[in-house]
Amino acid sequence: MPPNPTVIWLLAGTLLCLTELVLPTAFVAFVMGISAFIVAAVSSFIPLNLQIALWAVLSLVFVLFSRRLVRTRAAARFDATEAETLTEISPGQTGRVLYEGNSWAARCEDHTLAIAPHEKVYVVARQGTTLIVVPEMLLHS
C-alpha cells in the first residue's frame, strides 16, 4: 500500500520547520515547511503532480514575501544615517552618495534594486570605503 500523501506532506513540513531550528536559513526552510502543511491540508482533493506544483509555488511566494519582511526589519534595526544619491545606483552596481558632506561610493543592500539620483537613502553598513544603503521607500514600506 502506497504511503498517504497527507502524511508525507505533514512529515516534510515538520522536518523543514525543525531544520530551521538547527540550521538557520533566514526562514527559507520554515516557510517551505508552512507550504508543505498547506499542501497537506488540500492533498486529498488534488492529484500528486498538482500538489508538488502547489508546494513549489507557495514556497516561492512565501520565500519572496519573507525576504522582503526580513530585509526591511533588519535594515530598520541599524541606527541608519541619511545620505543622498549623487548618481544612479544600478542593481548590483556601485554609485555615489553624499554622506556627511563627502562623496562616497555606495551600493544598495538589495542587489535587485536601482536607486535614482538625488534620492534619500539610509546608510546601514560600511564595507571598506563603500557604504551599504537602502532607499527611504524600502524602510517605510
Provide a descriptive summary of the structure in words.
There is one protein chain. The protein has 141 residues and is α+β, with helices and mostly antiparallel strands. The chain has two domains: 5-76, no CATH class; 79-139, Beta Barrel (OB fold (Dihydrolipoamide Acetyltransferase, E2P)). It has four helices and five strands. A five-stranded mixed β-barrel has the order 1-2-3-5-4. Helix 1 (5-22) packs antiparallel against helix 2 (28-42) and helix 2 runs antiparallel to helix 3 (48-77). The N and C termini lie far apart (51 Å).
Task: Give the helix/strand layout.
Blueprint lengths: L4 H18 L5 H15 L5 H30 L3 E5 L8 E6 L2 E7 L11 E8 L2 E6 H4 L2
Parallel strand pairs: 3-5
Antiparallel strand pairs: 1-2, 1-4, 2-3, 4-5
What is the first-to-last residue Cα distance? 51 Å
Helix and strand run:
HHHEEEEEH
Radius of gyration, in Å, reads 21 Å
Summarize model confidence as the mean pLDDT: 86
Low-confidence stretches: 72-78
Approximately how much helix is present in the residues?
40-55%
How large is the count of helical segments?
4
What portion of residues belong to β-strands?
15-25%
Side by side, the strands of the main sheet go 1-2-3-5-4
Quickly give the structural class: alpha+beta
> Which outline best applies?
elongated
**Number of separate strands:** 5
Q: List the domain count as a whole number.
A: 2
Largest sheet: 5 strands, mixed, barrel
